[in-house]
Each structure stands twice: as C-alpha cells, then as structure tokens.
Amino acid sequence: MAKQINVALIGNPNTGKTSVFNRLTGLNQKVGNYPGITVEKKQGTCTLSRSLKAHIIDLPGTYSLNASSLDENVVIELLLNKNDKDFPDVAIVVSEIENLKRNLLLFTQIKDLGIPTILAVNMADRMERKAISLDVERLEQKLETKIALISSRKNTGFDTLKELITNHATISTKPCLNASAIAPEYFDRLRKVFPNQDLYKLWLVITQDVNFGKLERKELQGVASFKTESESTLKRLQQKETIARYQFINGVLKETLTIDTANAKDLRSRLDRVLIHKVWGYFIFFGILLLMFQAIFDWSSYPMDFIDSTFASLSEWMKTTLPPGDFTNLIAEGIIPGLGGIVIFIPQIAFLFFFISILEESGYMSRVVFLMDRIMRRFGLSGKSVVPLVSGTACAIPAIMATRNIENWKERLITILVTPFTTCSARLPVYLIIIALVIPEGRVLGIFSYQGLTLMFLYLLGFGAAIFSAYLLDKILKIKTKTFFVVEMPNYKLPMPKNVLITVIEKTKSFVLGAGKIILAISIILWVLASYGPGDFNKAEAIVTQENVTNNLSEEELETKIASFKLENSYIGILGKAIEPAVRPLGYDWKIGIALISSFAAREVFVGTLATIYSVGSEDEKTIKNRMAAEVNPVLGTPLFNFASGISLLLFYAFAMQCMSTLAVVKKETNSWKWPMWQLFAMSAIAYVVALGAYQLLK
C-alpha cells in the first residue's frame, strides 16, 4: 500500500485556495463538518507517486494565527495539536502575487510552529500584465523554504508543487522570527516554567482563546498555574509581534519583489495610476463628491416637494374631518408635522446611501482610504482612521464602533473624539431646510447650484474640523505609540444592483425608524407643552380681544393673534423665553432656541420640533418650509431665517455634539465618562463661538 502523508492547505481569504485544492484533489473530495461545530471540513486525496499519497485538508481562510473567529480557531486547534489524526506533515500556505506582503504574515507564523511549510504563490499568470517580477530563488533563501509559482486558472506549476510536497522532509523548519525578542523578560519566565516546550507554540496557547467549540485538546501541564500578564498587556505584545513580522517581511520583499506600476498593462493598474495619483487622485475624489451632492439636491427636489405638501394636506384634512378636540389637535398639530419633518428627507438620505454604496461596491472606497492616508499621517492619524470618518457621513455611532480595528490606542482615541465632526445623515435634514431657505437659487458655470456647493462646503468643513482637531489632539495627548498601515486593494467591479438596493433600503429604514421613535416622542411632548400653559394662557381670547377692540381685525387675523399669544404664554413659550437671551446674539428667537435644546437628543429633531411648534394653532395649509420662511424677527421686523441667521445655524450644527446616543457609544468604547463629557462641552462651545462670530459679521 502507498504511504499517506497529511497536507494542510492554509491561506488568507480570496487567495484562490479552494481552486488550488480542487486542482490537487480533482474528484477525490469529501465535505463534512468538524466534530461538534458547524465549520465546514473539506478533505481530499492526491496521488504524488506510486508509493506516496497526500491526504489534503482545506482549512478555513484566515489572515493570521491571532484568532478572532470560530473558523480561525479551527486552524489553530489543528496546528497546535500533534495528537490530532489530521496534524499536518507539511503545510502549504497559498498566497497571491498581488497581496504577497499581507499573505506572508500567516506564512511566517505557521513556519515558526516548526512545521515544514511550502509557499505557493498563486495567480502567477498575472505577473506579466501587472509588471511584477519575483526573485524566487532569493526569496527561498531569505525565508528558508521552498516556493512554487502556480496558476490555478491556467493549471501551471502544480507538478512543481507536488514535487515539493513529496520532498517536504528537506524543507528547513528554522523560525522566521525569534519569539523571545518580542518580550525577553516574559519569555525568560516561560522558558523556566516550561523548559521542554516550544516557546512560540506556548505563546499561542496562552494568547489565543482556542476553546470556542467542543474540540478536545490536552492542556499543557502548568499553564493554568502560570502567572501570566493582563489581557491588555498580551494584546500589546501581540501587536508588537505583528509589527516585528511585517518589518521582517518588508526587508525580504525589498530584495525580492519588484512592481513596476508605470508599465502595468491591466485595467486595474491603469485606473489606479489615475485614481490614486498623488495630485489628480484628490481632484477626482472631490469632483465625485461635488457631483454626488449636486445630484442629492437636483434629483430629490420633486419627491421632497410632494412629501412636504402631502403632509400639510394630511394635517389639514385631519383637522376638518375628525371631531374638534385635543386628540385631533395632537394628531394634526403634533404627530403629523413632527413625522413630516423627518419623512421629507427620505429622498436625500436614500440618494446619499445610494452613492456611498456604489463607491464601496465598485472598489473605489478602498482607494479613497489609501489616498487619504498620505494626508492623515500629517495629522497624527493613518488611512485606517478614514474608514470611521467616511462612515461618519452615514452615522457617527457605527463609525465610532468601526475604530475597533485601529490597534494604536492614541490613534483610536483621537479618531473616536473627532469623528462626530463629520457630517452625518442626521445633520442632513437641518442643512437641507436651512440651505433651501437662505441660499439663493442660481448656478456656477450653468451646472453646479449654489445650494449644492453650500452642502458640499459643509461636508468639507466637518471633515476639515475633524482633521484639524486630530492634529491638535495629537500634540496635546502625550501618548507614545507607533502604527503601521496595511490596506487591501480589491479589484474594480461593477456594483451589483441587488446589493446597492438592499444597502439603500436597510440604511434608510434604519435611519427613519431610529429617528422616528425619538421624533414621535418629542413631538408629543412638545405639542403638550405648546398646547397648555399657566395664567394668561387660559385667558388668551379675552386678553387679545380686549387689546384689539379698536383695531377692527378680521376674524382670521384675530384667531392668528390668539394662537400666537397662546404659544408665547404656553409652557414651551415660557421655557423658550427663558433661554432666548442666550441664543439671541446668534440670530435666533425663542422658537429656534427650543428646537436647539430638543435636538440635543438627536440632531434630526430640529426640523420636526419647528414643524410642531409652527403647526400648533395654525389653521392654514402651509408646508414646513413656507411656515419657516414666513417667520419674522420681532426686533428687526425682517425675515427670521435670513442669510446671517441661516449661516449661523448651519455652522452651529456643523460643530455641535447633539446626539445622546453618540455620547453613550463613546463612553462604552473608551470605558469612561471623561471623554464624552469633554466632547459634549468642547464641541458645544466651539459651535456657539463660531455661530456667534458668523452672525455678528454677516448681520
């Protein structure tokens, strides 16, 4: 009978590992599950010679041996357990030529376990088109291993790979990295307690949570009693190990890998030469942003006008159809206008997510991350921080949670603190209604409207504020750290309509339902506060009638005066008048002051609040925009929402931290109330000062 050896096929996701497995095993495959868990187990046989067969196990894709999922734990469980019947005699690490640097991290870790390891460089057929040259002989010397250049698509190099598997016993098992160099004192203690154990294997046993599933593993004697370091210290040492490995990999590839991007002939390389160019790349990116915001305004204007007039008509219909009373007024003046203040912005928000989804699906967003890394480093951040900052255009909450992939604590903390400056979708309703009120219609070059340009400016202002704040915090926070930036560049592809549609629907629904709950609750509270009041509120008709007995007002004018008097003397009017002195220097009246205070729960409440306040006691069928446009400054007698007060409001919302949910997430991510409180007070102070300066200069 032919002798059989175990071969483990290991690699990062998307390296073509499954194709390599299929080429080696053909139809000699079987698929099952690992004992007790749902992770798929693929295995097959490959005849190497008349006297030798290979039992090949296709292990789940993993980026490294620092496990973070059940799939990755399966890989570690097998590689650490010599008693497992599938323990490999030889490991094949499948890499692909375009991401060799990232793939080699896993290779060095597996080789350091003392297992004979072959490096299979897949997609070698792309090397000529990509203008990539690899000195295989020199790379074999530097890594002290054997390498096979293969192409699973063209079925080349597999004879060489099979020959290397056959002669695996001749491959060196010398480690790439001296594990004890990571933390000499810690590893000296390990060596004394466990003198007969391989240090790197022991390091993985201690640092990895490899007991997810119901897999059985014999524990090393003494591990439980060994006084190890804290979890945070171990994480820091893991990061130190990763950095050391990449330093080794960088040195190796510097001597063996050459990529002449200028002479690459494939479409991706040609596009990359333009889209991530150190000069034109930025112009293209900002041009795309400009077109995106222009489209948001132009395409959404028709559905917005329809929604606005529909809600106004619905409110009026409710008043005339339902029997008079508080319940009817609550629905017509509180709930419907409040919800209308958020539903009206569904078209813009849907278009925003539509464009973001296309940029992500096409592969361009990864280029933006790479492109912006050059700028971000000057401000104490890296390209990794761009992901949360760009995500912040949708919502700051998931964006702050996305900072978890930033290993450097100082960089992560700064990113958390500055991300709320980026313009999220909750600011969009405020921006759109104020821009429509105070920015005149007109176009530059007959294409770009003043309103679209203003919206883009506000987005750039938010991003600029985040970058500048990061620069200041980098100087203020005295935390010494070092970080490395690695990003995977996916191939360009046409966005799948189904994926784009699902993203738009899910993101828009999440925004509307999340905001809708808050809006509904606050609208009801505001309606109650605006519909009731003490003292003169209950004598409104008598007082107004007495004051205007000689003015010969029409019935309609008298009713308007009574409604206005009631609103000013209601509970919300009293509260608004109390805070008016603080907001008057910014160009706001007490109604805007109430909207500002209520919007600290969530920014998008601002428009709904004003819609509710302006609807109480109003008998005419006017849209939210028209009611806001009709407001008059009682001191100056001019429109309340003019250019000066409008710009002041836009700038206030551009800088203020008005989202309790974001503060809660910051507290959770930093494990302290210190940072969210600093965020709240610092951003609110900046917003007040900037808005004050803008109004006083422009009025």
Secondary structure: elements and pairs:
Elements: E1 3-11, H1 17-25, E2 29-33, E3 40-49, E4 52-58, H2 70-80, E5 90-96, H3 100-111, E6 117-122, H4 127-130, E7 132-134, H5 136-143, E8 146-149, H6 158-166, H7 184-193, H8 199-207, H9 231-256, E9 257-259, H10 267-275, H11 280-321, H12 326-343, H13 346-362, H14 364-376, H15 386-391, H16 396-401, H17 409-418, H18 428-438, E10 443-444, E11 448-449, H19 450-476, H20 497-531, H21 540-547, H22 555-569, H23 571-583, H24 590-598, H25 605-615, H26 624-630, H27 643-655, H28 660-670, H29 674-698
Parallel strand pairs: 1-4, 1-5, 5-6, 6-8
Antiparallel strand pairs: 2-3, 3-4, 7-9, 10-11
CATH topology of the largest domain: the name is: Rossmann fold
Large-scale geometry: elongated
Percentage of residues in DSSP E strands: 5-15%
Annotated CATH architecture of the largest domain: 3-Layer(aba) Sandwich
Instruction: Return the average pLDDT rounded to an integer.
Output: 78
State the CATH superfamily name of the largest domain: P-loop containing nucleotide triphosphate hydrolases
What strand line-up does the widest sheet have?
2-3-4-1-5-6-8
**Total of DSSP H or I helical runs spanning 4+ residues:** 29
Overall helicity: 55-70%
The residue ranges in which pLDDT falls below 50 over 5 or more consecutive positions are 210-220
Terminal CA distance: 95 Å
Q: Please provide the count of β strands.
A: 11
How many strands, what sense, and barrel or not for the largest sheet?
Answer: 7 strands, mixed
Q: How many separate domains?
A: 3
Family: Belongs to the TRAFAC class TrmE-Era-EngA-EngB-Septin-like GTPase superfamily. FeoB GTPase (TC 9.A.8) family.
Main location: membrane
InterPro entries: Fe2_transport_prot-B, Fe2_transport_prot_B_C, FeoB_GTPase, G_FEOB_dom, Gate_dom, GTP-bd, P-loop_NTPase
Keywords: Cell membrane, GTP-binding, Ion transport, Iron, Iron transport, Magnesium, Membrane, Metal-binding, Nucleotide-binding, Transmembrane, Transmembrane helix, Transport
